[in-house]
Amino acid sequence: MARITRVAPHLSAEELKTKLKLDLEAQVGHEVHKSTISRLLQRHGWRKPMPRPVHPQASAEVQEQFKKTSQPALRLPSRPVQQRTHDPS
Q: Using an 8 Å Cβ cutoff, are 8 and 19 in contact?
């Protein structure tokens, strides 16, 4: 499995599972269910990548200071709506 991730680091999780499934089927000589691959990955400590909730170097004090000193977003004045007049001529 490590060989595959080194060879194809650009693959998504589903593409990697499909590639692993095909490789395993070629090795064992018969089809395997996709849950077999999921269990195999779980057994070897693989998991879905998840985004971290907070950056390790984030500072709450700096963020609050930025909120207080930053300028509000630029908001353009809305254009007045022109009333259409109906000319029955």
A: yes
Task: Count CA atoms within 13 Å of residue 28 on its CB side.
Answer: 11
Round to whole Å and give the CA distance between 49 and 38. 14
Q: Domain of 13?
A: 1-48
**Is residue 57 one of the residues assigned to a domain?**
no
Structural element, H or E, at residue 6: helix 2-7
Paired tokens of 19: 């590639």
In angstroms, the CA 12 to CA 15 distance is 5
Helix (H, G, I), strand (E, B) or coil at 34: helix
The count of domains in the chain is 1
* pLDDT tens-digit readout, 1-54: 555 555 566 777 788 888 889 999 999 999 999 899 889 888 888 877 667 788
